[in-house]
Write a structure and sequence with these properties.
mainly alpha; 52% helix; 0% strand; globular
């Protein structure tokens, strides 16, 4: 079974069409051509589907980096530690 952090990383790889080595903690909205407004909405949709959560508009704007996405999902009850 895939761990949540792997599901999270795979969302970036699949939606933004990035190579595995391109997905890192420094990744941020606009830091790569693929993570533009269209890519951002794709990521939001993927996060909601994969983790069965709903991101409201305020949280969508907070989700602007790889690390901020993890923090948002943690606040929504997604466990990245004890899985």
């Amino acid at each position: 079974m895939m761990r949540n952090i792997e599901k999270y990383r795979n969302a970036f790889i699949n939606i933004l069409d990035l190579e595995e080595e391109d997905v890192c903690e420094d990744l941020a909205l606009g830091s790569t051509p693929e993570w533009d407004s269209i890519g951002h909405m794709g990521l939001i949709s993927e996060m909601e589907d994969v983790f069965d959560v709903t991101l409201d508009s305020e949280w969508i704007t907070e989700f602007n980096s790889y690390l901020s996405g993890i923090e948002l999902l943690k606040r929504l009850g997604v466990d990245f530690i004890n899985e």
